[in-house]
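Q: What does the assembled structure look like for these inputs?
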Amino acid sequence: MRMLMKKEIRLSTLLLTWLFIGFGFMTLLPGYPILCGVFFITLGIYQSFQNAREANDVLYSVLLPVAKRDVVRGKYRFVVLIELLGFALMALMTLLRMTLFQNAPVYRQNALMNANLFYLGMVLILFGLFNSIFVGGFWKTAYKIGKPFVIYVVVAFLVIGVAETLHHIPGLEALNAFGYDHILLQLSLLACGALLYALMTFLSCKKACADFEKIDL
Amino acid sequence: MHIVEVTDLCKAYPAFRLKDVSFSLEKGEITGFIGRNGAGKSTTIKSMLNLVHADSGNISFFGLPLKENESAIKQRIGYSTGSVNWYPRKTIREILEVTRGFYSHWDEEACQRYMDLFRLDENKRPMELSEGMKVKFNLLLALSHRAEVLILDEPTSGLDPFSRDELLEVFRTLKSHGVTILFSTHITSDLERCADSIIYIRQGEIRAACLKSEFMQSFGQADETLEEIFLRLEREARA
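A:
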């Protein structure tokens, strides 16, 4: 698996994918739908899938002395690596907004979502959706990337729209907590996001391994 | 024990069917796999590499079933197909650096030797190579990890006559070291020069799998070359 990760990083991945992790800094943008940062990070991953397809990466990998399911798992590990790096950056920026900048007027007077632990939970859910819809969808054919990506984009922006405005619904104001307000609720929401991410990624990977096993290359 | 054994392999596509394909390969033998375009050569070869899923049948290498021992078997076999472009924008050096890590028996000396023989420049990228040089690069990957079985799909197509001659010499040397080679080709003159056995496939069915001398005796007429036999058989089948 270590060698498959090396292959992913050295041969399959575009520099763009690494650079797009930087969209995690969007967490600091005031008055902007900050969850869109997730979309740009996943767009970077999508670019690498496109590059890998043009480079015959899947066929090359399958011919290596590894089981077919490991080729799928290697790709998932790489995707998770990029996502977790993006998440770490977003978490760092969120921490800044929860502490140093918690009373900054530009963040306080913001109709959209605040950067807090609920936001980080939603980040993980969006990454989970990317893994389920796009990455899982890719392995049904091992070459079609357009359709699963379009479906992911539609679902992702619906979820972003809902998550960014949810706190305006009476009774859900706590979702937009500042600093350490409602910390137990915030922590629970982050834990739910993490659990859903792990579940979506695990189930998607398992199904992708089975799907890829059936494909003729 | 046969080094490679394919038994009752079947695969149905909407417009084509592979029917009960069976043959075996012996250690240290060169076997030519001949048949027209669309006869089933590539489907058979892809099934042997688990790239295509057969509807039924068994494939084993070194006495081990392919399905349960895929990665262990791939350590011991090499595959090359025509002029596929692997990672066109990476240098040959980068591709080799990653690839060698996958093989426990990677032979750096052999790799360098074939690099020299094929005149490959490791600073070049596959997109900068001619079709013939891409074939050579693919062969380099297949030849550099002490493979005991080489499965080569059209390894000589796109090569100039001198390179083909060099490659056939490489095959003969590998054979003398006990390497088993299966190669599909349309250039039957290559088989006349180096094959020990012939597998002839037509419309998804194996019509012959025997020693080349037996094939010439059973199917050939007076003074016919392998190519002439092949052409006549195909014409007769069409008539």
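Chain A has a mean pLDDT of 95.
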